[in-house]
User: Fold these one by one.
Assistant:
Number 1:
Amino acid sequence: MGATRQILLTRHSVLPGFGLALGFTLLYLSLIVLIPLSATFFKTATMGWGAFWEAVTTPRVLASLRLTFGASLIAALINAVFGLLVAWVLVRYRFFGKRLIDALVDLPFALPTAVAGIALTTLYATNGLIGHWLDQYGIKVAFTPLGIVVALTFIGLPFVVRTVQPVLEDIEAELEEAAACLGANRLQTFVRIILPAIGPALLTGFALAFARAIGEYGSVVFIAGNMPMISEIAPLLIITKLEQYDYAGATAIAVVMLVISFLLLLAINLLQWWSSNRTKSNR
Amino acid sequence: MSLSPLFRLLGAALVSALLSASASADTTLLNVSYDVTREFYKDFNQAFIKHWKEKAGETLIVNQSHGGSSKQARAVVDGLEADVLTMNQANDVDILAERGKLIPADWAKRLPNNSAPYTSTTVFLVRKGNPKGIKDWDDLVKPGVSVVIPNPKTSGNGRYSYLAAWGYVLKKGGNEAKAREFVTKLFGNVPVFDGGGRAATTTFAQRNIGDALLTFENEVQLIQKEFSAEQIEVVYPSLSILAEAPVTVVDKVVDKRGTRKQAQAYLEYLYSDEGQELAAKHHYRPRNDKVLKRYAATFKPIQLFTVDELFGGWQKAQKVHFDDGGIYDQIFTKK
Amino acid sequence: MSATSVLHTPVPLEQARSAATNEPALMRWLLIALALIFLTLFLFIPLASVFYEALKKGGDVYLKALQEPDALSAIQLTLITAAIAVPANLVFGVAAAWAIAKFEFRGKSVLITLIDLPFAVSPVISGLIYVLLFGAQGWFGPWLQAHDIKIIFAVPGIVLATVFVTFPFVARELIPLMQAQGAEEEEAAVALGASGWQTLWRVTLPNVKWGLVYGVILCNARAMGEFGAVSVVSGHIRGMTNTMPLHVEILYNEYNFAAAFAVASILALLALVTLAAKSFVEWRFGHDQQTSIEEHAA
């Protein structure tokens, strides 16, 4: 234990339990995530490099990857902006029905994704409650890529709200008061004081909503229309590979998605680590 | 706040779940089937349990598992202990012989009619009064006609529709190139590709998308019942495809579990008069001519061709048309 | 009140204070309105439509859908699954957050990213990996079959898949919060002679209780609602290995929309129960805090 501390820790800490906590974390992570996920790599390896490259660079797969990552990014951005807004409103203001709204925010997780997909399709189809209204302005949502964004926004909605909310609750009013005393206006206070404090949480929420959207399948198939090259997401292609009993082909697409997701998430997490270090040294 | 009642409740639930999984003395059969046979096998299982009780004096429990056909076949290959498998296309059964060595390769010869006790075919559903005047396959490829077909990549129903259209051209004397052109036009008219047949029905009936829906004949009755018959009409094309629903005993499983006798009897009962009658009641075309005649009102005579006849069997059809890079993919990627 | 009037404290202090930490009323209402419009379009209407569809054919159909034996066994299985998956991920979450938030070590960002990864994995693949491991054609399949141990197409597989898809929740909820709080309080506790466990119980956990509660609620909601991954490993045996979301799919595919949405609405209600529990705890703790503050003041 002492040894792990010395090798790994870059800063000395008086707190105990590092070895135990990290050891358990790594063990559990390996058993539940890493070893099972490695199966996808091994399965993919059975097909050989040439076949792998061919399988993942067909126009159809490339189009679906572009769509999946693009739609996920847009949905995660929408959730970052509006999730922050919702968290802010829920923490800072009092208004009628606030508690109920606070309670409802988590429900997108509880609904089976297929139900979410069906409900959203019913509403956003051209004969649906919202779709009918949007149709008058020539906006079609269901059975277009826009529908995918709507579904992904719905299923990722709780992430940003719920990661930002506890941090926002923790911010001490004194800091803001001090800023105001020093002559900062409200916007300056928000940008200079509040945003840096909630920044890491906001980034976390964004990253999670983004990650969740990339993998999502159940709700999207109902609303997407699944038109090849236009509204066909990558997880759907995984399914179609499995329909042909092509396990290796399915895991090949999964591996590509996994590697891209890993790199993107790593970039976000490094950014967050860097920004929180900066604020710490600024303090 | 005391948590102990909650834990006790959970504990009880856990124990009962474990018990119910292990402690049943009766013989059980598991029938793994595709999505839309639920209603039929619900009735059939009851009839068979009664029949077996009378014949062998044994109380059976028949469990059902339903899902997308290939997915279900995959689960059996991967270890889902099915005593019998009832699918809607032969290559989903072939895979058991190929991948899992669970059944012999000549499984189809073990029961009459290619081991397919009942069949269906692809028909059209149109809006009330048939406003677009859709009578036959040619009407579906006209510009401005929108046709709902489930995704052939993920749905057996969609695959049959595709092959039916292809076969129609061949049967009319066209060549492969003509057939390809026709199918390309047909799929150019599809606005939405749902994952399965029932989702496609919902798109057509509830979202009001499309002028026609292509689906199995056995689905029509249920659709008309659930979505008000006044709004939807059936159209029988001049010719269509024979969708054979193959069944098999899963040898490796029944030998391990000691259920071969019961499983075999279960499948044979499908061919009995009672079994055929039940199939017909649920709008699957029976193989038994007597029963078929009795239900002549339901099953309009229609010229049918088989997958074996025009496409050289399901394995070949799957490979040429639906596998990655196959003709279906080419339709969409190489315009 | 009387004290302030005696001391002639300038009244505007309160106003200045609120101006410093609050927005003008117009801005406030604008923000609330925007948040509500967003939530209405993306959350309230879809949720309301689920309940509307569930109750469209009347309360009888609703109740009947829930009394069906298959529905009951699905509810039971879902609760058992969540009851195993959530505590497992809770323990992991606390351990991971402790290691990551309280210490500086190499490879931290990589570790956090690996924890995030299960979210990015398509649900089908989340199920498939366990098939590749434990399936008849998989690594351990033949051994498991020889010993007649069932993992996939049985309850253990369903639990494993659920643990996988809900893996990051508690950890990811706690990490940013604990990072924001820093390690000063814990260091002080240790300096005063508290053991590691005491520090965790008395200092850290009380400090992060809201994050912890949110994490558990989200984890629980998702554990009950997961469809894709569970669908791959369940085997779909009616009345035995169907969870609530799988049962919903079956009902929907039978065109039994009212019943399908009824079971879905129960899932939503179960999630609301955990939220009600949270509000209850909040109310009690809030109450306790209030009294302790008053005691201090006295």
Number 2:
Amino acid sequence: MSSSAQIRIRDLHKSFGDNEVLRGIDLEIGEGEVVCVIGPSGSGKSTLLRCVNLLEEPGRGQVFVGGTEVTDPDVDIDAVRRRIGMVFQQFNLFPHLTVTENLTLPQRRVLGRDKAAAARTAAENLARVGLSEKADAYPSALSGGQQQRVAIARALAMGPQVMLFDEPTSALDPELVGDVLAVMRMLADEGMTMMVVTHEMTFAREVADRVVFMDGGVVVEQGTPDQVIGAPRHERTRHFLSRLLDPAMAEVEEGTSDQVGKAG
Amino acid sequence: MSGVTEPAGAGARPRRKGLTRRQRRRVSRGVQYVVFVAAVIAFAFAADWGRLQDQFAQVDIARQMFPDVITLALRNTVLYTLSGFVVGLVLGMVLALMRLSSVGPYRWVAGIYIEIFRGLPALLIFVFIGVAVPLAFPGTEIIGGTYGKVAIALGLVGAAYMAETFRAGIQAVPKGQMEAARSLGFSPARAMISIVVPQAFRIILPPLTNELVLLFKDSSLVLLLGVTLEERELSKFGRDLASQTANSTPILVAGLCYLLVTIPLGFVVRRLESKAGEAVK
């Protein structure tokens, strides 16, 4: 949050048709900071994350990454995206390429690295996520957790300054979540700047420097994990956390069908 | 509620007199066999096998077709088909990308093209290439003579179908693939070429092979262009010989030559389809 902000979001608005998903978001993420964005589904947290590398075009407002304005119409977006790693809920590995090729093809096509250098970087990053032995496998032969770790390695191989995580463990079987979180924790310990949209409260509590709670397209409250998760000040935050931490205790509510569905 | 299924309902009812369900099914199947056998017998007796054999199965006439029917006719058919397929493939790909373009006029042009050429019989397009084009542009010569004309005519027909196949294939690649590529810094064109199109190709390989079979058969329309002896393909070759010998055996032989190619291709398509089905998982 100091002068060395890696990500700076100013008064960001975004609508899909009549549906106003983001209603003026201000957020700064400092160098080396790990920020977890939490909130109910439909709160706009994924949209916010996707606005940072312009996968979604914001309606109004500005986004800066490492001093470059992403929302500038004349920006070389491909160049900016090279500095921003992104990890998706559905992994999005390239199924027609082996694990190693998934890591080397972007390096060679986008960064223009030669074959040997790309292969070396690929091997290093596969080792970091503990999947060296899967180098020649195709994604379909991997478990979800392994695929997600390859996806993280693929993003890292581009040498990003910032990493975005869009619900990286939401599509995983519960017993596979831990491996992915361990890799993310390692990155955080290494000082990577990370913006993580997640439902993993344990991860947020233990790894995040700051937790941001969003609801209805605005930031409701933010602070250290102990403040936001441990002692939330707002009723909406308390309500959300109680449902998340103890879904079996949730009561049927009217007009919140998606939340009811989520709890079940 | 319609939740109650038929068998449960039937089982609950008091049993009627007469046949049980299983007996009824057995009788019904027996009747179907009888009808089938009767039809085969009726057909066998109705046909004049002797004359049919005279007209279609003269071994010595069939023998004198070889080796030309393979080395010339089948070879030309394959050549015509492949050249048309390549033209159609390239043109179809361009049309598909135009269809998906964000520039309106490209989309319209591609859409109009596809509607027109999918709706016209291939025969008319051959006439058009053979007659109308030389009339409209006197003195121009299509490169490659007959081969060039066939490549264009078959290509024009094939492209319309292949464009739709390509488009479906590209759209069948999950959106996340494009997003992942873009977020890694790929430009839109590069992401399309390196990531989306290779995956689309896997998806459309079976329908594309089917397209090849269709073009293979349509190559018989070459005879509308007026071909020299050396340019004859299977259908023309068979018909010419049939009129020379006043016998239809060459037609049968030519037909078998088509099947020689289309049946293995059909087998390949089914293999590819089952493989593609596995790959999705």
